[in-house]
Write a structure and sequence with these properties.
The complex is a heterodimer of chains A (about 120) and B (about 110).
Chain A (H helix, E strand, L loop, with lengths): L3 E4 L2 E4 L5 E7 L4 E9 L6 E7 L5 E2 L8 E7 L2 E6 L8 E9 L6 E2 L3 E5 L1
Parallel strand pairs in A: 2-11
Antiparallel strand pairs in A: 1-3, 3-8, 4-5, 4-9, 5-6, 7-8, 9-10, 9-11
Chain B lengths: L2 E3 L3 E5 L4 E8 L6 E6 L6 E6 L3 E5 L2 E6 L4 E6 L8 E8 L5 E3 L3 E6 L1
Parallel strand pairs in B: 2-11
Antiparallel strand pairs in B: 1-3, 3-8, 4-5, 4-9, 6-7, 7-8, 9-10, 9-11
Classes of the chains: A mainly beta (about 120), B mainly beta (about 110).
Chain lengths: ~120, ~110
């Protein structure tokens, strides 16, 4: 149980375009979802936390107008990288947590390359 | 501030035992996780400790001392596939997960 999927697994886009990444909890209701970014050889960096039906809470230094997060249902959250730049190229990972649960279940990640 | 410290890199021999330490200073404590992350992949759950003591799960064990702000992950009978980064993470009083930078474990034949 507790499976989280992400789509796409990898994406290449041109500078200036927008990319949407989906995160789904397949077999449980995710009241909270987290979006992380990880650059090569570095640890996970939390970008934002979103609760179903509420606006996401962004970490300091993360532009909310650039990284749009929507958590409209208990099984789906999306991250849209707007006006992508090469420096946005990274590994984006989502995780989900159910009501009253302490563990975060991770999706497989999405590798974004902006050319 | 909140801080989690773990060694950057460790090397061990196949078949041996290795202990990866993690010390933390956080605002409150609601549990500690260990995750394994292979290069290019998302983290996978290894263990969760919220009470003091040792939790054993097959070849992997995790220990916690809340009074010392200290945990370790013990890996026995090391296999080449255990080469990965091991991440220590603490749940603080706001139920936020605070991550360590990870320990890269290199297994040599």
């Amino acid at each position: 149980g507790a499976v989280v999927s992400q789509h796409p697994s990898w994406v290449i886009c041109k500078s200036g375009t927008s990319v949407k990444i989906e995160c789904r909890s397949l077999d449980f209701q995710a009241t909270t979802m987290f979006w992380y970014r990880q650059f090569p050889k570095q640890s996970l960096m939390l970008m934002a936390t979103s609760n179903e039906g509420s606006k996401a809470t962004y970490e300091q230094g993360v532009e909310k107008d650039k990284f749009l997060i929507n958590h409209a249902s208990l099984t789906l959250s999306t991250l849209t990288v707007t006006s992508a730049h090469p420096e946005d190229s990274s590994f984006y990972i989502c995780s989900a947590r159910g009501q009253g649960d302490h563990e975060q279940y991770f999706g497989p990640g999405t590798r974004l390359t902006v050319t | 501030g909140q801080n989690i410290d773990q060694p950057t890199e460790m090397t061990a021999t196949e078949g041996a035992i290795v202990q990866i330490n993690c010390t933390y200073q956080t605002s409150g404590f609601n549990g500690l996780f260990w995750y394994q992350q292979h290069a290019g992949e998302a983290p996978t759950f290894l263990s969760y400790n919220v009470l003091d003591g040792l939790e054993e799960k097959g070849r992997f064990s995790s220990f916690l001392s809340r009074s010392k702000g200290y945990s370790y992950l013990l890996l026995k009978e090391l296999q080449m596939k255990d080469s990965a980064s091991y991440l220590c993470a603490v749940i603080d009083s706001n139920y936020q997960l605070i991550w360590g930078a990870g320990t890269k474990l290199i297994i040599k034949p």
